[in-house]
From TrEMBL:
<comment type="function">
    <text>Catalyzes a trans-dehydration via an enolate intermediate.</text>
</comment>
<dbReference type="GO" id="GO:0009423">
    <property type="term" value="P:chorismate biosynthetic process"/>
</dbReference>
<feature type="binding site">
    <location>
        <position position="85"/>
    </location>
    <ligand>
        <name>substrate</name>
    </ligand>
</feature>
<keyword id="KW-0456">Lyase</keyword>
<comment type="pathway">
    <text>Metabolic intermediate biosynthesis; chorismate biosynthesis; chorismate from D-erythrose 4-phosphate and phosphoenolpyruvate: step 3/7.</text>
</comment>
<feature type="active site" description="Proton donor">
    <location>
        <position position="98"/>
    </location>
</feature>
<dbReference type="Pfam" id="PF01220">
    <property type="entry name" value="DHquinase_II"/>
</dbReference>
<feature type="binding site">
    <location>
        <position position="109"/>
    </location>
    <ligand>
        <name>substrate</name>
    </ligand>
</feature>
<dbReference type="InterPro" id="IPR018509">
    <property type="entry name" value="DHquinase_II_CS"/>
</dbReference>
<dbReference type="InterPro" id="IPR001874">
    <property type="entry name" value="DHquinase_II"/>
</dbReference>
<keyword id="KW-0028">Amino-acid biosynthesis</keyword>
<dbReference type="GO" id="GO:0019631">
    <property type="term" value="P:quinate catabolic process"/>
</dbReference>
<comment type="subunit">
    <text>Homododecamer.</text>
</comment>
<dbReference type="GO" id="GO:0009073">
    <property type="term" value="P:aromatic amino acid family biosynthetic process"/>
</dbReference>
<feature type="binding site">
    <location>
        <position position="78"/>
    </location>
    <ligand>
        <name>substrate</name>
    </ligand>
</feature>
<keyword id="KW-0057">Aromatic amino acid biosynthesis</keyword>
<protein>
    <recommendedName>
        <fullName>3-dehydroquinate dehydratase</fullName>
        <ecNumber>4.2.1.10</ecNumber>
    </recommendedName>
</protein>
Amino acid sequence: MIYVLNGPNLGRLGLREPGIYGSSTYADLVEMCQTVADDLGLTVDVKQTNAEHEMLEWLYRAADEGADVVLNPGAWTHYNYAVRDACAMLRGKLVEVHISNVHTREEFRHHSVISAVATGVIAGLGFDGYRLALEHIAR
Ligand code: DQA
């Protein structure tokens, strides 16, 4: 199982700042990840939460299973040490994905507390970032 985990506000894709995140919805993202995974012969579990404790439990499960994770931590990226510490427990790959190019945006988005414990980072490629992350994991 590969986990595709999405943090706060990502359930609002399509409604949320479409000029930045596009007009496709979270349901579209889930469908795309599932289609890409099917094509690659992977099994994915795609989820979103606004609750930190839930994200931590999902990361512990991935750690226990030695599973690979694609993670868009949303705003937690920039300040959440508990999510980072849970990411540090992972034994599989961790690909950090951002839909927008965080480096062209506000200064507070330029730093990620997650990246130092990630295998790699993809930012600014829209939903394609998830596709590329899954393709990387499949190789
Ligand atoms: C984001 C970028 C974050 O700065 C922001 O808080 C998000 C989404 C992205 O996918 O571009 O919620 O992770």
